[in-house]
Write a structure and sequence with these properties.
Radius of gyration: 23 Å
Largest sheet: 7 strands, mixed
Low-confidence stretches: none
Distance between the termini: 43 Å
CATH architecture of one domain: 3-Layer(bba) Sandwich
Number of helices: 16
Shape: globular
Structural class: alpha+beta
Number of strands: 23
């Protein structure tokens, strides 16, 4: 299979957010090519529903399909997201909490003073380096303001979303059916291979078969095609990332709806708090090597005030890592079947989207050659590894010593990738971090501002020695006033969401 002409039918195995997102993107890219796209979805297999948050890239998905926020957000109880607050990750004075912002246009004015302060702090000057003080999105999140400005504000704002993952999957299925994507309700038993080792058809539980020219494995952690049929090797991230379990449960939300995800360090992992229109999504990502499921659930319930509640908690096991080949023979793995990173930076649907979208570029060009597969697989592997490295950086820079879990995360520095070691050394030696990130060509995974926010927010600096002068503060005090005035152009988050009309 080397050209698009050899494909007449594409079969997506599995629904959920990943399956329907992949189906919609692929169908959109081949809408004039005479290629049939169908989704096989089992009614007996539950949907994991991983992730209730996104990066700003998700907006591109809806824009591509011309789906307006007023259509999908009300149906998914979705809210806006300006960034992530990290609470309790650092024990350094002044760094108990920091904000990882989604950088907006107005930050082109405030980012230079932030970097100047960071450079001065690396030289020992006692200046403010907390990213919360330098970015508009931090002000929006702190004030519960929707990141959509009034028309007279000249700067574009960048934002992500929070949403109910189950409802999102249902919404995407509805949109897919409206566009002509076939929906087949059936339970797949196994795949039948041809003489060349490609997948010829999927065999159903009733003994019938569904053949296709190309298959997209969205079967979740079971990985029916990419693993069970094609035996694609798996690259584990367990040496670098210790967490392997999670607990999730909801709580009520008040009148104010924040525009941020909160990640709070716990004894043996971290807890998320995600605001939806009708509730908070809460969870605890932890390592089973350091605590039991019951102990972790008790710790989470204590944190969110649900210790005496009969609301059930949902327990999940996580397999962190990725396959070696996301595109193997005539099969593309998308979503949990291809790999998974813990949801610290809301990467699950981002990687799903990029996996499908980049494949569509090859599909549109008609290049399905082995060379194309090699180029594609390297690119997607780099996406996974690049995001893994940024997540590793959170753990390696933590300064907590209250439990063996946090000590272990900080201690295994010999296992981190060389690329990450270069970033750490560049930072600590006071060299230009932006130059190093550009040299590694990793800015497309996380922008330079994100690395500055992480390392400065965690307080990775030498002890301050020099007293600050007015000149060394680099417009710090005028900046706060400027950012607050900018925030006057934004509306209360809940009020803004209330104006969105559900699709008729």
């Amino acid at each position: 299979m080397t050209t698009q002409d050899s494909i007449k039918k594409i079969q997506v195995v599995g629904g959920g957010s990943a399956g329907w997102m992949a189906a919609l993107l692929i169908a959109h890219s081949v809408k004039d090519k005479g290629i049939q796209v169908s989704v096989i979805e089992s009614e007996t297999v539950g949907v994991i529903g991983v992730g209730e948050g996104s990066t700003p890239v998700m907006k591109r998905f809806f824009d591509t399909l011309e789906i307006h926020e007023t259509e999908w957000m009300p149906e998914c109880n979705a809210t806006y997201k300006s960034g992530i607050a990290f609470d309790g990750w650092s024990s350094k004075p002044g760094h108990a909490s920091y904000f990882h912002p989604f950088v907006t246009m107005v930050d082109n004015l405030t980012m230079p003073p932030f970097i100047d302060n960071v450079k001065a702090r690396l030289q020992g000057a006692d200046v403010c380096v907390l990213p919360n003080k330098f970015f508009l999105s931090a002000q929006l999140a702190d004030s519960c303001l929707a990141p959509i400005a009034d028309h007279n504000f000249p700067f574009f704002t960048t934002y992500g979303y929070h949403f109910d993952a189950m409802l999102l999957g249902k919404f995407l299925r509805k949109k897919a059916l409206q566009t002509g994507i076939e929906h087949i309700k059936a339970h797949i038993d196994h795949a039948r291979m041809d003489e060349k080792g490609n997948i010829a058809a999927v065999s159903l539980a009733d003994g019938s078969e569904l053949p296709a020219d190309f298959f997209v494995d969205c079967s979740g952690f079971s990985a029916l095609l990419i693993d069970k049929a094609l035996k694609t090797p798996f690259v584990s991230y367990a040496d670098n990332l210790l967490n392997d379990s999670a607990i999730a449960m909801p709580t009520d939300i008040g009148d104010k709806i924040p525009t941020l995800t909160v990640s709070t360090a716990m004894k043996h992992g971290w807890a998320w708090k995600i605001p939806l229109q009708n509730r908070y999504g809460n969870g605890y990502v932890y390592s089973s090597a350091f605590t039991t499921a019951d102990q972790a659930e008790t710790e989470l319930r204590e944190k969110i005030g649900m210790l005496d509640s009969d609301t059930p908690a949902r327990h999940l096991k996580m397999k962190l890592g990725r396959v070696e080949k996301h595109w193997n023979k005539n099969c593309l793995a998308v979503g949990l079947s291809q790999g998974f990173l813990e949801p610290l930076e809301a990467t699950a649907l981002y990687l799903t989207q990029m996996t499908a979208a980049i494949f569509c570029l090859f599909l549109e060009k008609g290049d399905l050659s082995k060379q194309a597969q090699q180029v594609y697989n390297q690119e997607i592997n780099d996406y996974f590894d690049g995001h893994r490295n940024y997540i590793i950086a959170h753990y390696k820079t933590n300064t907590r010593t209250d439990t063996e879990y946090w000590k272990a995360n900080a201690a295994n520095l010999h296992r981190i990738p060389d690329s990450l070691k270069h970033i750490f050394s560049t930072w600590l030696e006071g060299r230009d971090l932006g130059d190093e990130i550009r040299r590694q060509n990793i800015e497309k995974y996380y922008p330079i501002a994100s690395w500055y926010a992480l390392l400065a927010g965690m307080g990775i600096f030498p002890d301050a020695e020099k007293k600050t002068t007015a000149g060394e503060q680099h417009q710090q005090y005028p900046l706060g006033d400027f950012i607050q005035r900018c925030a006057l152009n934004f509306q209360d988050h809940r009020s803004f969401l209330a104006k969105q009309k559900p699709a008729m």
